[in-house]
Write a structure and sequence with these properties.
About 45% of the residues lie in helices and about 20% in strands. It is α/β, with parallel strands linked by helices and about 160 residues long. Helix 2 runs parallel beside helix 6, helix 3 runs parallel beside helix 4 and helix 5 crosses helix 6.
């Protein structure tokens, strides 16, 4: 099975207020479209646990194949993206997380500060949730590692 749909959730108060452009979300959309995915949703939500959980729950319930959550992966007081994501994950892909870390370290020593999580919501081929830090570089690194493997990820999930 090849995934067909994708959603982007950006959690950033400054983007939400208009103080900062959504350049990371825009790049994610370009990369997902280039992979042949239909981007069904691109939302910007407030930082913090509740709003991220609500947005993620909505996309999982909608049956979106690939959900990219950008932002909230650091250690700040409103950074809960990994904790929220873990509640939805049935099969965490630690190896991909490590690959993203290694790719990011090629260009920034700050990469290790991200706590991004990657995993499937169901071992029988649910949604793939991908966390990324909020910089364009982080999005490029994260999706650069994960997107070429989508066919393998979904084929493996479906065969279980």
């Amino acid at each position: 099975m090849k995934p067909a749909t994708a959603a982007i959730i950006v959690t950033a108060d400054r983007v939400l207020s208009g103080a900062k452009p959504d350049s990371a979300g825009t790049l994610a959309k370009e990369l997902l479209l280039a992979q042949g995915l239909e981007v069904t949703s691109h939302d910007v939500v407030a930082e913090g646990y509740a709003r991220v959980a609500e947005a993620l729950r909505e996309q999982v319930r909608a049956g979106v194949d690939v959900i990219v959550v950008i932002g909230g992966t650091g250690v700040g007081p409103t950074n809960y993206t990994p904790e929220v994501t873990e509640e939805f994950i049935a099969a965490r892909l630690h190896g991909l997380e490590t690959q993203v870390l290694l790719k990011g370290l090629e260009s920034s020593h700050k990469t290790g500060l991200s706590r991004g999580v990657i995993g499937m919501t169901d071992r029988g081929c649910g949604s793939l949730i991908i966390n990324s830090a909020s910089s364009r570089g982080a999005v490029a690194d994260t999706l650069g590692v994960v997107l070429p493997l989508l066919g393998d990820i979904f084929r493996d999930a479906k065969s279980n």
